[in-house]
Amino acid sequence: MTKAIQVHQTGGPEVLSWDDIEVGEPGPGQVRLRQTAIGLNFIDVYHRTGLYPQPAPFIPGVEGAGVVEAVGPGVDWLRTGDRVAYSGPIGAYAEERLIDADRLVSLPDEVSDEQAAAMLLQGMTAHMLLRRVYPVQAGDTILVHAAAGGVGLIMCQWAAALGAMVIGTVSTDAKAEIAQAHGCAHPIVTSRQDFVAEVDRITGGAKLPVVYDSVGRDTFMGSLDCLAPRGMMVSFGNASGPVDPISPLLLAQKGSLFLTRPTLFHYVATRAELDTAANELFEMVATGKIRVEVKQRFPLKDAAEAHRALEARQTTGSSVLTV
């Protein structure tokens, strides 16, 4: 028997239950993974609350790192003892788990287990947003909401390395300092500054080609007002709640805008896409262009405490659950 966090019914952090589970042996194409670190992400909250429904009971979490304990039939590129990490599928909040080998990536020596668990989902999300959804170029000015969060800090560093100027929203002066230290040229403290007005001031009224918005309901309409004609609104999260329905006509009225709601799993659907995203991320970390700092650590059994901190926006950078 091993231990895992399970959700038997959706709700608040209190529904996260510390249970005994049976893992079993890996089947064809699978490995059994002994996890050493598990990523904490807002999608875990969406699963727990039922915003993204899952059949109960389920084990939340979509990101982790660890050591291969056993290899199933047909897996010829991994061996017992290999260090690996993954982003998806759900089921990460466990001491051990079974997972399809084709969703794993091998970890280079330069990347620790905690770094991998803290950054793989967030880092590949940043890769998707900056390199594929809207390919950022040198000279672009972009807006990144929640710039001091896990995805936000990676995006600020990556975009700055590409030669873009990053405007970022944060909730406090302390988070503004963190974002600025990670490549955000113009942090906006939303508790005392209007981000739409600040974007207009910073750009001299030219506005932006793209806005990356993980906050959702509270920022969505303002984000549209930050875009130049034919700009792209990238909505990729709901930290403040899901966005209310809008008419497509609104996009025309605000400048023939583009709107997309990307999901990482559609951008790493093939083995080649997964390898490309992970390897480009690892290269950015290995060369020092992106620093991944684990700011918070919670024991796996205290996942409820971790969720409370995440939802209260008390975290900065990356957080992991330790096993």
From TrEMBL:
Q: Where is the signal peptide?
A: none
Answer whether the UniProt record assigns the keyword Cell inner membrane to this protein. no
Q: Which species is this record about?
A: Sphingomonas brevis
What are the alphabetically sorted keywords of the record?
Answer: NADP, Oxidoreductase
Question: Which CDD domains does the protein's record reference?
Answer: QOR2
Q: What is this protein called?
A: Quinone oxidoreductase
Among InterPro entries, the record links this protein to: ADH-like_C, ADH-like_N, ER, GroES-like_sf, NAD(P)-bd_dom_sf, QOR-like
What residue stretches are annotated with the Enoyl reductase (ER) domain? 11-321
Q: Which NCBIfam families match?
A: PRK10754.1
